[in-house]
Design brief:
heterodimer, A: 263 residues, mainly alpha, 8 helices, 73% helix, B: mainly alpha, 3 helices, 92% helix, 0% strand
Chain lengths: 263, 180
């Protein structure tokens, strides 16, 4: 018996944060074994299964799943890796491909019937990926530009009047070292979080006004809720793809920036 | 009571505070994908894509080579054909020259032969004439004698006329000989 059903007895209440709280899968299960954890691992298995069927035994002349997989590979290579990494693109394709597919499947879990929970709407998961990229960014930056050179290139880009640096250096440091990884994770998290609430809200409207409290006045609102649920699900499919693309794109951008000082 | 507790618990879990166990699971889930997809599968597809590129480039190269080879062979054939034509023209010219020479030789020979035949004929004719002449001389003597005998045997009244006949006859005989 959840809080939702108790309150639902007398008046409509929009879904909120409780959407993101899950008990353990069954009574007595380990405390960490919840639906998001299950979906996160399931997503990994889905990505691995898909990639294995596509790239496990690749042929010179592609057939079936290999075509689909190559389409994804080409997309990540041409739209994400090459624009930011140039000739180093191939070395980081493994990482970028993993990030893109994993985030996309995490997000897609939000619209798959029954499962219906976008894994990335639990912030821990985007944080893990963002931290990995952040760690790589700093490591590669120091390796390729030198420990001091990395921060010098970041905070003191040449060719500006001296006084500007008093302003620029702290901003650049803050932006690169603190804001960038934070927004990298939060952008994905917040999009999935909000999207999940929106879909839940409209489906709750439909459910409430068409099934729980069916009234002549409320019915059209319920129909609108159902229609909006369908529309928002379509929109959410687009956002899910876009966020996965963006997450991989930013990762490529950060890594590319560390390999070569841009300024 | 239970509902209120759940609500409190919900509010206690801030959505931007990551759960520790989810961080661990997240790392595990990501590493799993990174190892299998990133480290095992990506190199495979990269290798295949590179091989495909090479195969296509190799195919194009091979086609170009074949075309160049065909071009070379064609040139060679053309050169050979031209050479053969030249050779044929030369042979034809030679044959014509030879033919002309043979014809000229034959004509010369034929003319020589004709000349020789004519000469032989002339000689023969001369010999025949000489022989006829000699024969004629003997005949004339005999005839003259016979004629003379006859004339002598005739009447003497016509003696003067007979004489004239004999004279004319002899004169004519002389004249014929003089012509020759």
């Amino acid at each position: 018996m959840s809080a939702l059903t108790v309150l639902a007895a007398d008046e409509f209440k929009a879904p909120g944060l409780e959407l993101f709280d899950f008990p353990t899968l069954w009574a007595g299960a380990p405390f960490w074994l919840t639906k998001p954890v299950l979906l996160a691992v399931l997503s990994s298995l889905v990505v691995i299964a898909f990639c294995w069927s596509a790239f496990g035994n690749p042929k010179l002349v592609p057939r079936g799943m290999q075509n689909v997989g190559e389409y994804g590979y080409m997309f990540v290579r041409d739209q994400v890796a090459r624009p930011f990494l140039g000739k180093d693109a191939d070395r980081y394709m493994g990482l970028l491909l993993s990030l893109f597919f994993l985030v996309w499947i995490w997000n897609l879990m939000g619209v798959i019937p029954v499962l219906q929970f976008p894994v990335a709407s639990h912030i821990a998961f985007p944080v893990v990926l963002a931290l990995v990229v952040y760690g790589m960014k700093i490591y590669l930056g120091m390796k390729h530009q030198g420990a001091l050179g990395y921060f010098k290139n970041m905070m003191f880009p040449p060719g500006l009047p001296k006084p500007i640096y008093f302003l620029l250096a702290p901003i650049e440091f803050l932006s690169n070292m603190i804001v960038a990884p934070f927004t990298h994770a939060v952008r994905l998290f917040a999009n999935m979080f909000a999207g999940h609430i929106i879909i839940a809200f409209f489906s709750m409207v439909g459910f409430w006004f068409l099934f729980e409290k069916l009234t002549p006045l409320g019915a059209p609102v319920g129909v609108l809720g159902v229609l909006m649920t369908i529309a928002m699900t379509g929109f959410e499919l687009f956002i899910q793809f876009l966020q996965a693309f963006l997450f991989a794109l930013l990762a490529a951008m950060y890594i590319g920036g560390s390999l070569h000082a841009e300024h | 009571m239970k509902a209120a507790a759940t609500l409190l618990a919900a509010e206690g879990n801030s959505p931007i505070m990551p759960h520790m166990y989810e961080l661990v699971v997240g790392v595990f889930a990501f590493l799993l994908v990174l190892v299998v997809v990133g480290k095992i599968l990506t190199p495979r597809i990269q290798k295949t894509l590179n091989e495909r590129t090479e195969a296509i480039e190799g195919g194009i190269k091979k086609a170009e080579d074949a075309q160049a080879e065909a071009q070379r062979t064609l040139e060679q054939y053309r050169a050979q054909l031209a050479e053969a034509r030249q050779e044929a023209a030369r042979l034809r010219e030679e044959a014509r020259e030879q033919g002309a020479r043979i014809k000229a030789e034959l004509r010369e020979e034929a003319q020589e032969e004709a000349r020789r035949l004519i000469q032989a004929a002339h000689a023969q004719i001369e010999a025949d004439r000489q022989q006829a002449m000699a024969q004629l001389r003997g005949e004339i003597g005999r005839l003259s004698t016979e004629l003379a005998g006859r004339i002598v045997g005739e009447s003497l009244e016509d003696e003067a006329r007979q004489r004239r006949v004999v004279d004319r006859f002899l004169e004519e005989l002389e004249g014929t000989q003089a012509v020759h």
